[in-house]
Write a structure and sequence with these properties.
The protein is an all-alpha fold and about 525 residues long. Helix 19 runs antiparallel to helix 20 and helix 22 runs antiparallel to helix 23. The chain is globular, with a radius of gyration of 25 Å.
């Protein structure tokens, strides 16, 4: 009996943990949005541009020195005290080296950008990755038990604390240091709370170093290249553009990334778990990957296109009319990310087979395409050239990913592309509906008009996309997928409620629930 109950228990706890992490990411992104709403009305675009340069340098350095300490502990069947001590010691050494590198590079960076303020800013922001690296290693014990409510509480409360202090400092000083303090306080709050939830008395030891050595390889290189892909643009633009323009661009990226990262980044772990269970069954793995890929495109594509459609009203409502220069950046940055939604599931698929070297190759391809195009683009067309380079590199990475999936699962390239036809068609219908509505709405020239435009266009877009998706699904013969899963779940809920109402009123009318269809739809959508 335990053999049967255990998988169900594990699946339930994994699903609950995944739901908690998605909820945590969504809530923290809402707090980020609130922080952005407040800070952009107190500080200047040049302040954000200055901090963007320092933060990009810190992020790049952190990625170069990144070690998979947590993943190494998770892979161990049992974790002893010496493992925790070694993990803490490695994190501490890494943090000290990271701080030394940042302090040593702060002065040359300040000279390179001709801005002395960067020296103390880089040194101070280095505290953030340092503190993230020395969180209590005993937190991994709860993660091994698939208990994530502590991670949820730590992440959410950390964001809340940093928001309060960052806002207070901004109101009192009107200085760019409020942005930096917001970042450092968040990391410090998370570190302190980790020791409250998972008490641990630090002790230095490297006796179990061999356990962690195997994780410093292709995956580390892949993360370094990935960090270069995301950070070098701001460092490049910081050299050739003024701080105000860079602040506009940095804020536009943050606005664009909020819904994208909040929804899809937390999905990697459950997908990795699902693919790992099916790695020996190529046919079921192919079906699982295809449904995951189609589901992500179904949700992600309208989000990014919708962001582009309401860029003007979004910028005016979220960060204020002083930031209208960021409107075209938000519009085109959102569209530049659209190729990424089609192959988001490739990353956990590659890790399932341990293809970290292939992951590195993919990241190198993206960087190799983006780097020369971004340099040429910024010199020729400014921010537009950088955004175009983003789109082309994402597209190249997508094409590469299609052939990778074919080799790992047997799914044909054309078969993968056809899986996205309903989301693409429904998105086009949404664009026509929203653009038609804009002709009837007043110009977005005041905050009130912007709020009306944002609400009306968002509602219209959601309704039009849902209607278009349902129509295309019905015309396609109601195939398995996210549409069928939602439809069956809704029918199950409605039937259950009607059955309860009938029993309450003493009627002998029955409303049978097609349980086998619901279960089959649920299983197919996941496996």
């Amino acid at each position: 009996m335990s053999e049967i109950a255990q998988p169900a228990n594990i699946g339930s706890r994994a699903a609950t943990g995944a739901a908690l992490m998605v909820a945590a990411r969504l809530l923290t992104r809402f707090i980020d949005l609130a922080s952005m709403l407040v800070l952009t009305r107190i500080l200047l675009p040049a302040d954000f541009g200055l901090v963007a340069i320092a933060a990009s340098l810190c992020g790049l350095t952190e990625a170069i020195l990144e070690l998979q300490i947590n993943q190494a502990l998770l892979r161990l069947p049992t974790v002893a005290r010496l493992h925790y001590d070694t993990a803490f010691t490695i994190g501490l050494i890494r943090g000290v080296v990271l701080m030394a590198v940042l302090v040593a590079s702060a002065f040359p960076v300040a000279r390179f950008y001709h801005d002395a303020r960067l020296f103390p800013l880089v040194c101070f922001l280095g505290l953030s990755p340092f503190m993230r690296g020395i969180v209590s290693p005993r937190m991994v014990a709860f993660q091994k038990q698939l208990s994530f409510w502590r991670d949820f509480a730590i992440e959410l409360s950390g964001k809340g604390i940093s928001f309060v202090f960052g806002t207070m400092i901004a109101l009192l000083t009107h200085s760019y240091w409020a942005i930096a303090l917001n970042t450092v306080i968040y990391s410090g709050a998370m570190m302190a709370q980790s020791y409250y939830f998972a008490p641990y008395r630090p002790r230095l030891s490297l006796r179990e170093l061999h356990v962690f050595a195997g994780f410093a390889g292709w995956m580390t290189m892949a993360q370094i290249v990935s960090a270069l892909n995301w950070q070098f643009e701001r460092l490049l633009l910081g050299k050739v553009m003024n701080r105000s323009a860079l602040g506009m661009f940095s804020t536009a990226i943050d606005i664009t990334n909020i819904p994208f990262l909040a929804l899809f980044t937390p999905m990697a772990r459950p997908l990795l778990a699902a693919f790992s269970h099916l790695s020996e069954d190529r046919e079921r793995l192919a079906a699982s990957y295809q449904k995951a890929s189609v589901a992500m495109a179904t949700v992600g594509l309208p989000l990014l296109i919708g962001e582009s459609l309401v860029a003007d009203s979004t910028v005016r409502v979220v960060v204020g009319p002083a930031w209208v220069g960021a409107v075209p950046m938000v519009r085109w940055l959102a569209l530049s990310l659209t190729p990424a939604v089609f192959t988001l599931a490739t990353w956990p698929l590659l890790l399932t087979f341990g293809r970290t070297k292939t992951l590195l190759k993919r990241n190198l391809l993206e960087f190799g395409v983006k780097f020369p195009l971004a340099i040429a683009g910024v010199l020729w067309a400014g921010f537009s050239g950088v955004i175009a380079a983003r789109f082309v590199s994402e597209l190249a990475s997508d094409v590469f990913g299609l052939f990778l999936v074919r080799g790992l699962t047997g799914l044909g390239v054309w078969e993968q592309v056809l899986g996205w036809k309903r989301s693409v068609g429904a998105s086009l219908f949404m664009v026509l509906a929203v653009e038609g509505l804009k002709w009837l709405l007043p110009p977005v020239d005041t905050l009130a008009h912007a709020a009306v435009d944002l609400f009306a266009c968002s509602a219209c877009g959601a309704i039009a996309y849902t209607f278009g998706l349902c129509m295309l699904w019905i015309l396609s013969g109601r195939p398995e997928g996210i549409e069928k899963l939602v439809f069956d779940r809704a029918r199950h809920i409605v039937s259950s409620r009607r059955g309860k109402e009938s029993s309450v009123f003493g009627k002998s009318v029955s409303f049978p629930v097609s349980q086998p269809i619901v279960e089959q739809g649920s299983q197919d959508s996941f496996h």
